[in-house]
Amino acid sequence: MKVMIVDDEPYLREGLRIKIGKMNLGLTVVGEAGDGQEAIEKLPVLSPDIVLTDIRMPVADGLTFIREAKERYEGSHFIIISGYEDFDYAKKGIQYDVQDYILKPVDTDELRESLMRMMSKIAEERKRASAASRLAIRNEEISRQTELTRIVQQLPGIEGGEREGRTELPDAFARSKSFVAIVYELQPVKLPHRSFEKGDEELLFFAVMNMISELLETPERRGLLFRHAIEERRLVYVLADIRYMNAVLLAQDLTKVIDDVRNYLSLGITVGCGRIVSSQCRINSSYYQAARASRPGALWSVPRICGAAGIDRLLSQRGDRRR
């Protein structure tokens, strides 16, 4: 973590720098300032985690500096250093969320304890912020999965009118004239499994989705991959502008996903393809065909060509089927 020292007496700043350097707490003194005005100018450049500031200084005192810093910037935490005669004044810093006070002359052990308390507080804040960020990302992904599931789950055969107005895929698909839905169905797996521990379900699906993305996403393919919000073992991949793709290579990559998931993750997985459709409001029809084709037992018995019925249909639609 980074520390900034603010005091109008150079020898006191130097003494604090030396003390902190000898503590081996993982702290780095990134800068100093001789008064509150200089400190407020340096704060956004140095971005310190902890600021040690004197209370009585020319130009702008410690409380003025802290008040302006709190109004302008976020992220810094303040420890006030004051003489005994200034202690009552220094206690006003509580309104600015000052966490600690140290009396002059600064005792090394007291300084160490104060810094350690502040480091612990910052670490806890970062932990909570990280957890909140992960939760926000997770909630955003759940919302995305729910909306995309809603789009592909709508009953096939309904075109135009209210439904067409409600069903919108991302802007990247707006000008596309052909689509196909692909469904990967992951077979049940009990954790722990290989390197995945109990509770690693999300990580497991991330690994599978990463494999699918790496194999299927190319400069000529525009796809949308998501986990089904209801069928928890189902991954859906919607490809746009399918009529301009090499269907033979696509079919090979679809089956290679199965090979890689089985070889590297030791997981059973099947794939199904729907028919090519010419508008967004018919993607649901392609999805339902792909979902039926991906069911275990409804596919060819040769593992590496699971879902071949749907893939053959895709090839025959393009006229690219090769024997």
TrEMBL record:
Protein name: Two-component system response regulator YesN
GO biological process terms on file: phosphorelay signal transduction system
SUPFAM superfamilies named among the record's database cross-references: CheY-like
InterPro entries in the record: CheY-like_superfamily, HptR, Sig_transdc_resp-reg_receiver
Residues bearing PTM 4-aspartylphosphate: 54
PROSITE patterns: RESPONSE_REGULATORY
Highest classification ranks of the organism: Bacteria, Bacillati, Bacillota, Bacilli, Bacillales
PANTHER family referenced in this protein's UniProt entry, alphabetically: HISTIDINE KINASE-RELATED (PTHR42713), TRANSCRIPTIONAL REGULATORY PROTEIN HPTR (PTHR42713:SF3)
GO terms, molecular function: DNA binding
Keywords in alphabetical order: Cytoplasm, DNA-binding, Phosphoprotein
Response regulatory domain segment(s): 2-119
